Description:
- The protein is 38% helix and 23% strand.
- It contains 8 helices and 9 strands.
- Strands 5-4-3-6-7-8-9 form a 7-stranded mixed β-sheet.
- Helix 6 crosses helix 7 (157-164).
- The longest helix has 29 residues, at 2-30.
- The chain starts with a helix and ends in a 15-residue tail after the last strand.
- The relative contact order is 0.11.
- S-adenosyl-L-homocysteine binds at residues 83-86, 112-115, 117-118, 135-138, 141, 174-176, 191-192, 244, 246-247.
- Pfam families: PCMT.
Amino acid sequence: MVYRSHIFLFLPILLLICSFILSLFRMAWECSASSNAALVRNLNLAGIISKPRVIEAMKHTDRKFYCPHFSYADSPQSIGYSATISAPHMHGTALEQLESKLQPGARVLDVGSGSGYLVAAMARMVGKAGYVKGVEHIQGLVDLSKKNLQEDAKHDPLIEDMLKQKRIEIVRGDGRLGSPQDEQFDAIHVGAAAPDLPKRLTEQLKPHGKMIIPVGTTFQDIFVYDKDAHGNLSKKFLFSVRYVPLTDPPSDYEDM
Ligand code: SAH
């Protein structure tokens, strides 16, 4: 009798714990698929991406070239060097937010470019007259992303041409300082969290430019910054996130 009453108490608690754990993973499961096309369709159905140019860019940027394991899972995946490729819903959100500035001919900076996925997707949006630069501080990831882009380029003459013309470039550097060439961009994506908005990045944003960046330490918020014609910045809060921080390169990877 006593034993049965324990079960009645235990079962609802177990169900509660299970549904809590499930809810934690729901975001990651929601859009997961078994092909790139299905993943992009799910992101669209979930309302994460809706702009036709974003949908096209993501359809043509097959994640299998940038994320060899669980390519179409809507969750971050390891790419080595203690780094991860961001989840598809985060890539989709960034492209949606920057879309108005990812116009043909635009110049774009991707800070913490990791796998190179977003560099490729943004290159498809700015096209052959555009320019996309990735800044990554781990040499192994600079090399890996270049290799990934070359694989992608085998299936798309646009990416092949942009790589040849140096309209897609990945450089090693401290992304907190923006482009080492100190130039200006129409759009800046930051893929790791900064404790405060890095000044150099705001300086490298053109008037009318747009930047998306996670800001914060333990708790981080994603902000979209817009620069007006006079260089004044305004910001919009999107949502809270957990990103890896922008750091010094780990010493064991320094020469890799
Ligand atoms: N957006 C990328 C990677 C996101 S993970 C993708 O989806 O593939 C964050 C990346 O930022 C990692 O590759 C990490 O090495 C890089 N990073 C962290 N601090 C950095 C810094 N100070 N300068 C440049 N890159 C940095």
